[in-house]
Write a structure and sequence with these properties.
about 250 residues; mainly beta; 2 domains; 6-stranded mixed β-sheet; 4-stranded antiparallel β-sheet; globular; disordered N terminus; binds zinc ion
Length: about 250
């Protein structure tokens, strides 16, 4: 006896419908695909959620630091007065802004790849750090260096915008000295490539390319990966644009 493909499909469909309607069946015939989030992303401890659709990792954060800052409202338990010197031994000068809760959604490639044209990083969030605070680039405004902004960095080298977005342009000192180390993974840029601290194998990193990174084995990527390093000289986190193709951020 010959059975056509259509008959087989018809038979399977019937079985599914029957089992779906059966009072004794508890199994749904259509199983949704569940994408697991690779363990490395769980290092972003400040995220409110991290999910994967198999192509992108979606990271949601409130953008508020988990450390003390002179920029929290005085009534906040994380407020702490600050004076003296800050980044680059500059005398601290507080800016008029304060920290407020944000609503960031970072969508970054699960499998980052090098781009053929390296898109410029935007003003505003260009990546996410472990505590959920965004990374900003090396400019205070369009092509304006940070020269006059660094003096407003708080004790952990972050500060808020006029729209109350707290951010790091340079090394996030709380992460490199309290929560992790100077050679640790510190976050990801929007192109999905990881960001590390200023040291590697116990010494200050050298030999970075135009995008402020290089390819090598890291503790989190034993097979090697392109990664950025944060240093204390301009451009600090990223150089001439993203190494890879960036995802998106909504805020
Ligand atoms: Zn800034
Ligand atoms: Zn490295």
């Amino acid at each position: 006896m010959k059975i056509s493909t259509q008959e087989i499909i018809g038979f399977i469909t019937t079985v599914f419908i029957l089992s779906g309607c059966s009072k004794t069946s508890t199994t749904n015939p259509v199983t949704p695909v569940i994408y697991t989030v690779p363990a490395v992303y769980s290092k972003i401890y400040g995220a409110t959620s991290i999910t994967s659709d198999g192509t992108y990792i979606t990271i949601k954060t409130t953008g508020t630091p988990d450390h003390k800052s002179v920029y929290y409202p005085i009534a906040n338990t994380l407020y702490e007065a600050f004076s003296g010197t800050t980044f680059d031994s500059r005398t601290f000068v507080k800016n008029p802004n304060s920290i407020a809760t944000q609503n960031f959604t970072f969508k970054i490639p699960l499998n980052p790849v090098v781009a053929t044209n390296h898109a410029s990083t935007p003003l505003g969030a260009m990546g996410v750090s472990l505590n959920g605070v965004p990374f900003f680039n090396q400019y205070a405004g369009p092509n304006q260096p940070l020269t006059n902004e660094v003096m407003s960095f708080d004790k952990y080298w972050g500060h808020p915008t006029a729209t109350s977005q707290y951010h790091y342009h340079v090394e996030p000192l709380y992460l490199t000295t309290v929560k992790a180390t100077k050679s640790s993974l510190l976050g990801f840029l929007l192109d999905g490539f990881p960001v590390y601290g200023p040291e590697e194998n116990g010494a200050a990193v050298t030999g970075l390319d135009a995008y402020h990174g290089h390819t090598s084995v890291t503790a989190d990527y034993p097979n090697g990966i392109y990664h950025y390093h944060i240093t204390n000289t301009d451009p600090y986190i990223n150089g001439n644009g993203y190494y890879g193709t960036p995802g998106t951020v909504t805020q």
